[in-house]
UniProtKB/TrEMBL annotation:
InterPro entries: Harbinger_derived_prot. This is Uncharacterized protein. Pfam families: Plant_tran (PF04827).
Amino acid sequence: MACLFWFARTNNDINVLESSHLFSNLASGIALPAHYVIQGKEYDMGYYLADGIYPKWSTIVQTIRDPHSQQKKYFAMKQESCRKDVERAFEFCNHALQLLRDPRFWRKEVLHDIMTTCIILHNMIIEDERDLNAPIQDAVEAPTPTIEMVIDENLRFEQFLARHKKIKDKNVHFELRNALIEHLWEQRKIFEN
């Protein structure tokens, strides 16, 4: 989770993306490991839900603007509802708690803690209100990653470029989104039966 702060009216979606440590840490090889399997395909980078203004990177899953099939409509509905949860967390901070009324008077570290706390509180409210009869899926622990120390600066730079290229891979973006579409559709059928 990342909470980013700028001067008033300077934080649009593209500034957030370009200034985010999430992607620079991922390219540098220092991000937390992520390992998961969707539709039999292994992935080793996390992904973030976004709207259509963001680029089609392997780490960003966008909704489908004009879905035609039932599967794509269901995916778009689920993706947008999850994305809206974050927006509601910020509304919760601003309106219900009024914590962000005058953010210029707060230190950046305190604002980060406030935002993180509000997101956690909002998620707790969502979990509390969610259907208690929903099936629980067991989490699978990812293997402990092995860290390789790279002394050769040329090799280190090549690895950085390879990771950077992998982040911006448009083909993986569509592959992941299609796998998520199929996965959600299968989960829906299981839940309905």
